[in-house]
Amino acid sequence: MNVRTVIITLLCAVQLHAQHISTRSLTLDANLLNLPVCNGAPKQMVKLEVGGKAVREVEIEFTEGKKPDLWVFLDVRQWKDQTAVLSGPLSLITSIECNDAIKTDVPVYAEALRPQFHFTSMRGRLNDPNGLLSFDGEHHLFYQLHPYGIKSGSKSWGHAVSRDFLHWEELPIAIHAEAEGMMFSGSGVVDWKNTTGFQTGKEPPLVLIYTATGPPRDQRLAFSNDRGRTWTKHASNPVLPEVTHNNRDPKVFWHEPTQRWVMILHCTEKGKKLPPIDPKDPTRKTGEFVFFTSPDLKQWKREGSVIGFAECPDLFPMKIEGTDKTKWIVHGGLGEYFIGDFDGREFKRTRDLLHGPYGSAYYAGQNYSDTPDGRVVQQGWAKMSDLVFTGMPFAQMMNIPCEITLRNTARGPRLVWQPVREIETLRTKHHHLESVVLNEQSDPLKAVQTPFFDLHAIIEPGTATQIQLMLRGTPFVIDVKKLKLTSGKATMPMPVRDGRIDFRLLSDHGLVEIFTDKGFKFGAFQHMPNAAAPLAPKLTAKGGEAKIVSLDVHELKSVWPVARH
User: Which CATH number fits domain 428-556: 2.30.40.10, 2.60.120.560, 3.40.50.300, 3.30.470.20?
Assistant: First the structure.
């Protein structure tokens, strides 16, 4: 095919495409535009213009003549009562409805598979938590969100707030994917000293630091002066131009000793040779985290670096429990971490690579900044197969926020995970057992007729080779000899201490989280319930008899305003 033929073919394609693009004028007399989605259909572009300016462009999976699988929404309240113009395929833009509520056959949060005490977005597919911060009694959870479908797509920053890390109010999207690309991961801070000059009222501004994918890929700011309800992108973005092609995921905090902001940034360069992160396993993926410092979040100076992990770095100080000694933690997306010392510019590790959360459903954990009670609260993305929520208008979920501490052991300090104490406020009906024999026929939990519970068990394995907990058709098996728990392909250690197995388990739709060894071991497992399986958990022993020393199950109520169990 010669050049002339190629040009003619492209022009014809453009003309044909243009013939299918139509416009529709409408008054935005409600808060939302409801958009139909046909899962798996070709992606169609819809543009919204207000006052002659394009304000949103979104991709929607849509096929003419097919009944939508779900409806998603575009928040338009900031342009209320103004005239807007929609452009896109005629059949799609004529299907769009302006309403004050999400169009749905089932109330939001009452869907059959909606998790009842873990955060999920009203609509769309979420992943990494971003910008976690606390201010004025509210905890702000930002997160990667494709709001216009349940498959992975263009990323914006979703936003929700809570006063207890459990009951969440979803707010409008904080920063949208726009001309500068998708909005990848980052962090959030309270600029208490107004180093940025963004403050306009009596309260300090909240500032988000994020990666825009471009190209080029760079680091940018957005700020809010109304407690995070509206956000403005900094007029002089980017504040840190592209360092390497793959630079991303800035985590920023104020370093009090040097009176500077510090950024740790994933900066792995393609082809650059790095020493293995784990000398015992040279195949383990290695990355590089680079430190930058700034007086005002706008001007950044490159400092030292540390061999790190794949992505999503975090860096934070912790006092060793029961002492006045402070150590610094560097960890990445998989939760693996180093312990060391940090002077504001350089990190020197004092321990080898340490294991973070186990299982397959925990990723990109990040700490909330400025928690008012001094707790270190970390939250991750419960990464899982999208099949877990088949048929739902949302995909993926967040892990339970965990309080982490640093505790001394015979092998040096280690991180400890426990679910935030606020979860106890969700407890309802209580079941207690003690001195109960377990065998293959036992069924001590048959009275627990809910999939939402907080279980704490102390079991003497006795002659049993396995302890099995069956949850809605999925076995969680403790191998007494191998000292591990397995569910599907995912595993975690399950030690026997003083002849006993001691663990805590949280059960929700889609996710099971397990804490053992006094919190030194934490695992998260995706869970696909079998609708035909019994509702009550079934606890048995195989290969011999075991004994329940004590077992407490607290049924948990929903955190949502409308709940369906």
Answer: 2.60.120.560
Q: What is the pLDDT of residues 51-80, one digit of tens each?
A: 999 999 999 999 999 999 999 999 999 999
Residue with tokens 């995070």: 228
Domain 124-397, classified CATH 1.10.443.10, yes or no:
no
Going by C-alpha positions, the residue among 92, 172, 137, 112 that lies closest to residue 391 is: 112
Q: Is 373 assigned a catalytic role?
A: no
CATH match of 12-99 with 2.30.30? no
At 562, list the tokens.
Answer: 């409308």
Give residue limits of the domains in the chain.
12-99, 124-397, 428-556
Give the burial string for 342-372 (b: 16+ CB within 10 Å, else e): bebbebebeeebbebbbbbbbbbbbbbbbbe
SS3 state of residue 209: strand
* Catalytic residue (one of 100, 128, 296, 508): 128
**pTM > 0.85:** yes
Residue 416 identity (one-letter amino acid): V
User: Cis link prior to 215 (omega < 30° from 0)?
Assistant: yes
CA distance 60 to 201: 39
